[in-house]
Amino acid sequence: MESTKFFLTVDDYQNDAKNHLEKVAHDYYESGANDEYTLKRNEAAYKKLLIRPRCLQDVSSVDTSIEWFGKIHKFPIGIAPTAFHKMACKDGELSTLKGAADTNSLMICSSWSNTSLEEVAIKGKQMGAQLWFQLYIYKDRSVTEALVSRAEAAGYQAFVLTVDTPILGRRIADMRNGFSLPKILKFANFEGNAAHSYMPQGIKGQSGFMEYVTSQIDPSLDWNTLDWLVRRTSHPVVVKGIIRGDDAKMAIEKGAKGIIVSNHGGRQMDSAPATIEALPEIVKAVGESCQVFLDGGIRNGRDVFKAIALGANGIFIGRPVLWGLSVENKKPLTLNSIIQGAKGVKNIISILQQEFTHTMKLAGCRSIQEIRKCKDLIVREDFYSKL
């Protein structure tokens, strides 16, 4: 029987993923920085928020759609950029792409994918998928410049600039494992350039990935970097990794069209706030001047609802997609097809879509607009302590 028949929640996938991944890959996907305080806080913060449902609202029909940069999306749920999908299944990002297309969900392709941006784009056009492209800024600016040109030519619709990684977070699990990509895998977007396409081999106590980032990624990034990208492309630029209102305002002043409230899944600055905690400050700071998205800690449709109610235009999921990829593959990196991994991704997103719709109806909301305009729909759990 198909395993998806027994998986009714995102947690079901998380609990089973470790049975289908090599330990080093599982730890890379699952772990956070340092003591993993922020990693845990991302999820825990949602549990401190309560939904105050409205009754007698006629929810026989609800509209879950929303507009992002002039395009209508059936649900406010997309796929965040995550690296190295081929550690989860043989067809990696192509399986993720099919899962996205099958659920009409936008996918942000990572610079550090195991499948080239061109191959993802070609397949995406065939499947009718919508794609954005995520960027890191390399010390050799011509490397990033080339990625921008290639992504534009391939048809990506927006750029997502990651700004929270001047250096790599101290990821203890990766250091203990001496994490590096399996030798058969590479950074596919840098084919032909050994310095950029292969990760140094790690040793116990030292991550090969950290060595790669230290040697390649530019730690001198400043607001001029965002200026450069906005001038360089006519595509919308979305800034990912902002958790402060003043930084969000500056990003908009520099020309960004969107913000992704993100702490890199708790993998960079440990002791940073949960993204759902940071969201209201950023929404207040930017008002209606840009679109605000969020990632981190989303595990069910109620979490999606809470983020939308607090002002997000949409959310992106990272780890759940990787769990979906891995669970459908009994032997990662061996015989496989695009269809297999895609089934898990499709089911993960479908679960969130169904739960989100269910929550809307129970909360008495018929549209995204109704969720966002009801200011007392979400309260902290201490709201009732005064009673």
UniProtKB/TrEMBL annotation:
PROSITE patterns: FMN_HYDROXY_ACID_DH_1 (PS00557), FMN_HYDROXY_ACID_DH_2 (PS51349). It catalyses: 2-hydroxyoctanoate + O2 = 2-oxooctanoate + H2O2; a (2S)-2-hydroxycarboxylate + O2 = a 2-oxocarboxylate + H2O2. FMN binds at residues 81-83, 110, 134, 162, 240, 262, 295-299, 318-319. Pfam families: FMN_dh. Keywords: Flavoprotein, FMN, Oxidoreductase. The keyword Zinc does not apply. GO terms for cellular component: peroxisomal matrix. Glyoxylate binds at Y28, Y136, R171, H264, R267. This is FMN hydroxy acid dehydrogenase domain-containing protein. It comes from Heterorhabditis bacteriophora (Entomopathogenic nematode worm).
